[in-house]
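Input/output pair, single chain:
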Amino acid sequence: MSHGGKIVADALAQLGVKRIFSVPGESFLAVLDGLYESGIENVVCRQEGGAAMMAEAQGKLTGEPGIAFVTRGPGATNASAGVHVARQDSTPMILFVGQIDTAHRDREAFQEVNYRSAFGAFAKWATEVEDPARLSEYVRRAYKVAMSGRPGPVVVALPENVLSADRVEAGRVAKTAPQKASLAGPARAAMEWLVAAERPLVIVGGPHWSDEAAKSLETFAKKQGVPVAVGFRRQDYFDNRHPNYAGDLNVGANPRLAKRLKEADRLLVLGSRLGDIETQGYTLVDPAAPTQQIFHVHADENEIGSVYPVEGSLAARADDFASELATLPPASDGWAEWTAAARADYEAWLQPQQSPGDVKLEEVIGWLSDTLPADAILTNGAGNYAAWLHRYFVYKQYGTQLAPTSGSMGYGFPAAIAASLEHPDRQVVCLAGDGCFQMTLNEMSTAVQSDAKPIVIVVNNGRYGTIRMHQERTYPGRISGTMLANPDFAGLAVAYGGFGERVTTGDQFADAFERAAASGKLAVIELVVDEDALSPSLTLSGLKP
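Output:
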């Protein structure tokens, strides 16, 4: 017999949870007590948005639900940003929220929120435990729901009186591993379908990927001679050095790849939802009347055919299907020219286009791509600065890109902390804009306390650059709400107990990075970039009339 908080902690331990992220609150004191001797590391964060993003990143890194605990009311609403990332990125995650005593429900008690309603559209499942005897059951089910089909976030509210209840009997908690059906027949059928194409394109993305799956897809692509493109911020799903790699379908995708997608006659889509970003607002593949035929493989059958009509489909995990595709013998030798042209387009896109100013991001990213170990983990949030990373960094293996397909600002730094804790032996580098970093930089305190050691490269141009770009296009010359007064980022890192250095010319960067890495602690390198540099192919002066 135990109190409810210990039942929750013990259930998580039985499910193999090693680390959680939290901001403490009186609403779940019993869980904090339950964690005391659980063996689960509790990473104490500074704001619930950061905690939820760290948990989401943990889910991406491990393929198992990342876990966050936050308090009721403002704690939960702060955490909603991370829940939204998990939803759009198909990441398994569980957010546990402390809740008011059930006896006070519907009185608008202090910080009372109906979480089923508040998170109903954000989460795969939002619920509240009302009976202490069912705590183990709810934890087990939350874990299963987060992992099943298309993975995603689950929100579980835990009332104070349920957690503090004494003499609660623990239920049995164990992971469930559904049996896998043979994919040999469907894989042959998909290949028979694809072989009829003149201009095929394989597109991979979504959840359920691994290093083994990446290697399987490389084997399949080489055998069949077919080009492979990856979805938005899924660049590490396929070795970018592979001769069949055609590039990524991101916000600023290679125009030649976008044209190739539009001209393809058959698309084999593995795991990706083929969403808004990949299709440039559904213009490259028209949901009403696509010119391409589609064979869609996705773990959630509800995603298949929900936007696009398909000629073939299979409800299966993309990684499992890739493994089966790798076993197939060569089926066509007619795509060599098409595939070689796709590869040539990607290699041409890698050639740097010079930016204005003394610090050029194309040179910084090129240096990182050439210098970092192949297993280094790169994180980022949202902003035009990320366009240089997408275009010029060559990803060599799976598990090295950690970024929000939801486009959430502030994500990169919490994600980098989670990555550094999960992989302390690997180099973790966060690329952040000055606006992006300031949304979560208070987590520098979390990094120092938990001994996380990412290197953060802050791109400082004194503005919300992406919005300024759109503003200049739509309302030229009318600057409103996009300028930033920034702190000394390097000095701030030192104040938090980390390493900081400011870079004002390109030739300073390599030495600054080496010093940051040698410091053995959280490090911030502030890049002072030219205000005229908007993106790899745009300048502010070029947009002005």
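The domain at 352-543 is CATH 3.40.50.970 (Rossmann fold). The chain is about 35% helix and 15% strand.
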